[in-house]
């Protein structure tokens, strides 16, 4: 069954000069599927994710999550962004528990639910390997550690859909690899459906069961690739011929659809102009 159904979705930003950020986008994301979105800058990846998260209105089309039309943010959908946005005045554990605490304060949680929530926060801390830093503050953590806390915080309300916008964009290559395996592990045990935006084609193939390639002007879906790798990913798979062939194909298609010129004649002209200046 589809967890997310996107039908003929469009988005026009009504600025002085209207921008068609998305046109006629249709996509089904299955239960427990991991879908990655890639594409040239400005093709509407973040806009699509924000619409899925209910943070942005669509201009046209339909969007259904778990059988319900999306009209705003919802507890079944959680978002993780590139910038960790932790509360600096709260400890790691308090950051993770934050949303539950708010609910409890508002009287929306029974005492047994509060207890269960405390247990879940501890379990999430263990899962992300940061139990020893439970009482540290965000400024005492590395970027990778902060992003692990942000992921745990997003998972705290047990969302069935996790929307991730370049979550590892600011991390170094080694930390990213650790984060990739962590997020795959989380998805396996929590059975979360994940839609993940990235600029990094290797990351998109390693994580995704399908890679959705978008193209700009107007933002649209260009090609959907089924990733031909076993479900249980291992870092070595990045060197497999089918992985490398897919990476090459997707990179070439991004270049073709980006609208940016790599034309040698144009570069030559720039060189001549620079020399004449
Ligand atoms: N608030 C806004 N007002 C006007 N135009 C916007 C707004 N947000 C995004 N856009 C435009 O919509 C288009 C899609 O933007 P979006 O950020 O979704 O692309 P993206 O694929 O995520 O880009 P990148 O990979 O560079 O982050 C771009 O042309 C952008 O300039």
From TrEMBL:
The keyword Cell membrane applies. Signal peptide: none annotated. InterPro entries: AAA+_ATPase, ABC_transporter-like_ATP-bd, ABC_transporter-like_CS, ABC_transporter_ATP-bind, P-loop_NTPase. Keywords: ATP-binding, Cell membrane, Membrane, Nucleotide-binding, Transport. This is ABC transporter ATP-binding protein. The keyword ATP-binding applies. CDD domains: ABC_NrtD_SsuB_transporters. GO terms for molecular function: ATP binding; ATP hydrolysis activity. Residues 4-237 form the ABC transporter domain. It comes from the Bacteria. SUPFAM superfamilies: P-loop containing nucleoside triphosphate hydrolases (SSF52540). Gene3D superfamilies: P-loop containing nucleotide triphosphate hydrolases (3.40.50.300). PROSITE patterns: ABC_TRANSPORTER_1, ABC_TRANSPORTER_2. Belongs to the ABC transporter superfamily. The lineage of its organism: Bacteria, Pseudomonadati, Pseudomonadota, Betaproteobacteria, Burkholderiales.
């Amino acid at each position: 069954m589809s967890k997310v159904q996107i039908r003929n979705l469009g988005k026009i930003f009504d600025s002085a000069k209207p921008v068609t950020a998305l046109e006629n986008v249709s996509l089904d994301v299955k239960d427990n599927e991991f879908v990655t979105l890639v594409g040239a800058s400005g093709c509407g990846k973040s806009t699509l994710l924000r619409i899925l998260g209910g943070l942005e209105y669509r201009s046209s089309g339909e969007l259904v999550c778990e059988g319900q039309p999306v009209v705003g943010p919802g507890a079944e959908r959680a978002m993780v962004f590139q910038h960790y946005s932790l509360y600096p005045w709260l400890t790691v554990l308090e950051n993770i528990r934050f949303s539950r605490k708010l609910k409890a304060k508002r009287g929306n949680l029974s005492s047994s639910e509060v207890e269960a929530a405390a247990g879940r926060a501890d379990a999430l801390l263990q899962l992300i390997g940061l139990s020893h830093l439970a009482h540290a503050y965000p400024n005492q953590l590395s970027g990778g550690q902060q992003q692990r806390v942000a992921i745990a915080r997003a998972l705290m309300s047990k969302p069935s859909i996790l929307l991730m916008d370049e979550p590892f964009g600011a991390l170094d290559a080694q930390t990213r690899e650790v984060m990739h395996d962590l997020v795959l592990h989380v998805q396996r045990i929590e059975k979360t459906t994940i839609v993940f935006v990235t600029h990094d084609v290797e990351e998109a193939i390693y994580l995704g069961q399908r890679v959705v390639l978008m193209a700009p002007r107007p933002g649209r879906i260009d090609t959907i690739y089924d990733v031909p790798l076993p479900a249980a990913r291992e870092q070595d798979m990045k060197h497999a011929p089918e992985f490398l062939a897919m990476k090459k194909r997707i990179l070439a298609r991004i270049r073709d659809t980006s609208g940016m010129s790599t034309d040698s004649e144009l570069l030559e002209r720039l060189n001549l102009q620079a020399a004449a200046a």
